[in-house]
Amino acid sequence: MARILYDIHEYDWSKRLYKLSLQVSKELGDQSGMASSLHELAIIQQDKENYEEAERLYRKSLEIFEKLGDKSGIAMTFGALGRLSEILERPDEMSNRHVYITLITRQWC
């Protein structure tokens, strides 16, 4: 439901539902759910041009994905951080993330 609200640009409602999802995931000890909710909240912040908050949320999400060893989540979040770095015109960070994503991808093949 939160994604549908996001897709129709109802960002405030979407944000509320993702925060609720984050809270429930915390209560259940669902680390993967927490990381996913944080990632989605970061996307909303990025779309609203709240770049510092988006980066903070992406990094929290990445930390959890790394702890879980979730390569898909890691790659997805590094990709998002790379896009954010591009928006913020930080080319060095983009290239570092590209290398990391390439390494992860090669491990899957």
Question: Overview of this structure, please?
Answer:
By secondary structure, the protein is mostly helical. It has a single domain (2-108), classed as Tetratricopeptide repeat domain (Serine Threonine Protein Phosphatase 5, Tetratricopeptide repeat), CATH 1.25.40.10. It is built from 6 helices and no strands. It has helices spanning 2-7, 11-28, 31-47, 51-68, 71-87, 91-108. Helix 3 packs antiparallel against helix 4, helix 3 packs parallel to helix 5 (71-87) and helix 4 (51-68) packs antiparallel against helix 5. The longest helix is centred in the N-terminal third of the chain and has 18 residues, at 11-28. The model has no long low-confidence stretch (mean pLDDT 85).
Number of domains: 1
Helix-strand string:
HHHHHH
The Rg value, from CA coordinates, equals: 14 Å
Tell me the CATH topology.
Serine Threonine Protein Phosphatase 5, Tetratricopeptide repeat
Per the principal axes of the C-alpha atoms, what is the gross shape? globular
Question: What is the CATH class name?
Answer: Mainly Alpha
**Measured distance between first and last alpha carbons:** 34 Å
Strand content: under 5%
CATH architectural group: Alpha Horseshoe
Number of strands: 0
Helical proportion, percent range = over 70%
Average pLDDT over all residues: 85
- By secondary-structure content and strand pairing, the structural class works out as mainly alpha
| Structure annotation, total helices | 6
Low-confidence stretches: none
Largest sheet: none
Query: Could you give me the name of the CATH homologous superfamily?
Result: Tetratricopeptide repeat domain
